[in-house]
Design a protein that fits this description.
The protein is built from six helices and nine strands. By secondary structure, the chain is α/β, with parallel strands linked by helices. Strand 5, helix 5 and strand 6 form a beta-alpha-beta unit. It starts with 10 loop residues before the first strand and ends in a 7-residue tail after the last strand. It binds NADP nicotinamide-adenine-dinucleotide phosphate. The site of NADP nicotinamide-adenine-dinucleotide phosphate has 30 residues, from helix 1.
Length: 242
């Protein structure tokens, strides 16, 4: 039996909270009474989200965050810990993708994907992890992608970053398991979010999963934390498209 009420008062930090999966998850967690620390570079978007969360009974703290900047990530974690005392959950949802065959992929795009997706996830784990170890409990959800396990022509840079995130996540699972900290790799197939807005040509998003589906699965993962550890979960749209 899922106890959604059990998330009331839990402190949950979300990177990439201004749009897409992160924002939808924050909106849902707000209705469940969670304390949210919301991070992204879009402070106006975060402020609007925080207002919505507070209106439905949650608490929300919007914090400027650039996951590629170590000082910014350290500050994000410090603000969360100072404000709420504990951090129960970290959701790493900040991510970007650009698509081109590897021979055509601009080096700057490759660097940026590695920086946001891989280094950003590393930094957030690095600065929230010690607090969770000290508490003796915590959950880290890394939003990877199915592209972290399969080769997608045209998605080489994105896949490289996400294979990296999956590797990092699996190691962290082993390192933190005995500390009571659950680290989960979430591998979605295609999700209809703003992720695809800048992609030319824009793919058909009509059969992708809605962000609300992902948000519900994430909340389920957090609510089902009953002593068993969920290491990895793949969530696919009905047609199995990527
Ligand atoms: N959409 C999909 O089909 C899909 C499928 C599988 C996995 N995923 C993964 O799921 C995660 C969320 O994707 P989404 O679909 O929600 O994408 P989205 O709608 O484009 O949202 C991406 C979020 O990442 C944030 N972000 C980007 N660069 C950042 C930076 N340097 N520092 C802090 N935040 C940053 C953005 O905020 P700002 O721009 O405001 O900073 C935004 O809130 C990503 O890791 C993505 O790779 C997506």
């Amino acid at each position: 039996m899922i106890q959604f009420g059990s998330l009331k008062g839990k402190t949950i930090a979300i990177t990439g909270a201004s749009r897409g999966i992160g924002r939808e998850t924050a909106d849902l967690l707000g209705t469940l009474g969670a304390n949210l620390i919301l991070g992204s570079r879009n402070e106006i978007g975060l402020a609007k989200l925080a207002t919505r969360v507070e209106a439905v009974g949650g608490r929300a703290l919007p914090v400027y965050l650039d996951v590629t900047d170590e000082g910014s990530v350290r500050n994000f974690a410090d603000v969360a810990i100072n404000e709420f005392g504990t951090v129960d959950v970290l959701i790493n949802s900040a991510g970007i993708g650009t698509f081109a065959s590897l021979l055509d992929l601009p080096t700057a795009d490759f660097d940026e994907m590695i920086s946001v997706n891989l280094k950003g996830t590393f930094l957030a784990c690095k600065y929230f992890g010690p607090q969770m170890v000290q508490q003796g409990h915590g959950q880290i959800l890394n939003i990877v992608s199915i592209a972290g396990t399969v080769a997608l022509p045209g998605g080489g840079g994105y896949s490289a970053s996400k294979f990296g995130v999956l590797g990092l996540t699996r190691v962290l699972q082993q390192e933190l398991r005995s500390e009571g900290v659950q680290v989960t790799a979430v591998l979605p197939g295609a999700v209809n979010s703003s992720f695809w807005d800048g992609i030319d040509p824009k793919p058909d998003v009509s059969s992708m999963m809605p962000t609300s589906t992902l948000a519900r699965h994430i909340v389920y993962l957090l609510s089902a934390h009953d002593g068993t550890f969920i290491d990895e979960i793949t969530i696919m749209p009905p047609l199995g498209i990527l």
